[in-house]
Amino acid sequence: MEQRHATAPQQVPGMSTAELRRHYLVEDLFAPDEVRAVHSHHDRVVLVGAVPRTGPLPLPAFPELRADRFFDRREAGIVNVGGAGAVTVDGEEHRLAPTACLYVGRGAEKVSFASADADSPAAFYLFSAPAHASHPTVLVEPGGGTVRELGDPLTSNRRTLTQYVHEGGVRSCQVVMGVTALHPGSTWNTMPAHTHERRTEVYLYFGVPEDARVVHLLGEPDETRHLVVADRQVVISPPWSVHSGVGTASYSFVWAMAGENQSFDDMDPHPVTGLR
Ligand SMILES: O=C[C@H](O)[C@@H](O)CC(=O)C(=O)O
Ligand SMILES: [Zn+2]
Question: Which parts of the sequence bind Zn(2+) (predicted)?
Answer without folding.
Answer: 194, 196, 201, 243
